[in-house]
Amino acid sequence: MKNHSKSMLRLLMLVVISICIDQGTKQWAQHTLLVWQHDTNLIEYEGKREILYTLGQSAGSQNSVSEEPQGFLSFGFCYVRNQGAAWGALSDLDERIRVPFFYLVTMIAIFIILHYLRTTPLSQKTARLGFTLVLSGAIGNFIDRMRLGYVIDFLDVNWALPLPWKINLSSQLFTGRLSFLNFDIHTQVWAYDFPKFNWADSMITIGVTLLLVDMLILEALRQKRLARAFKKGRNHEPTTLA
User: Each residue of 224-233: pLDDT tens digit?
Assistant: First the structure.
């Protein structure tokens, strides 16, 4: 019981640190990247984009007569107000539905995560860390919705990848904020401007990835070890002579 309390305290500290980083970076983005905003309408604003680092050549700097397309990876900042979920999903919902929906879903998710944190064995460190990161991200974005009415996104990543084969695939099945699920892969280059995100979104993504690793890989290893231990115990059972 003492070890469980210590573990919960460490995870709580991780949640607090993550939330502080999330809120601090969003405050920085608000003061540094926001150019203009309407006095009353939250949707009317203007943010600026700053490219910090580019690996390779962007599409605008490539030689158009070059036969071999050059790939690039770009990272920077771009201020965006997101009224939906992570990556901008569901932001087109009516405000009368969207606001209470996100409040309710977030509160339910927080209670569920806390329950699993309390009941997950201490030995399953990957799962407990995953739940903790998801919890910190959910609380971080929830604070934004309660305080501002929107979530501040500012991390900006885009890339172009040269393809070894001639491929022409496209999908335009989604509209609105779900349009980021659409893709357009040309015969030579796959270019994509990733949806803007923040620290909380990153923690949720990493946390979910850890939970998937625990469920799909580590759980199978635990079951194999349990089966071997059970088989070994059966083999060492004393035999009774008739």
Answer: 988 888 777 7
The set of catalytic residues is: 153, 201
pLDDT in tens, 190-240: 788 898 999 999 999 999 999 999 999 999 999 998 888 877 776 666 655
How do 169-171 and 151-162 pair as beta strands?
unpaired
Provide Rg for the chain, Cα atoms. 24
Number of neighbouring beta carbons within 10 Å of residue 136: 27
Residue 242: inside a domain:
no
**Containing domain of residue 11, as a range?**
2-233
36, exposed or middle or buried, with CB in 10 Å at 0-12, 13-18, 19+? exposed
Q: For the chain, what's the residue count?
A: 242
Helix (H/G/I), strand (E/B), else coil: 82: strand
Model pTM score: 0.81
Residue 172 lies in a domain: yes
Q: Is residue 241 domain-resident?
A: no
Cα separation, 203 vs 22, whole angstroms: 9
Looking at the domain assignment, is residue 239 inside a domain? no
Give the three-state DSSP class for 221.
helix
Q: How far apart are CA 188 and CA 155, in angstroms?
A: 27
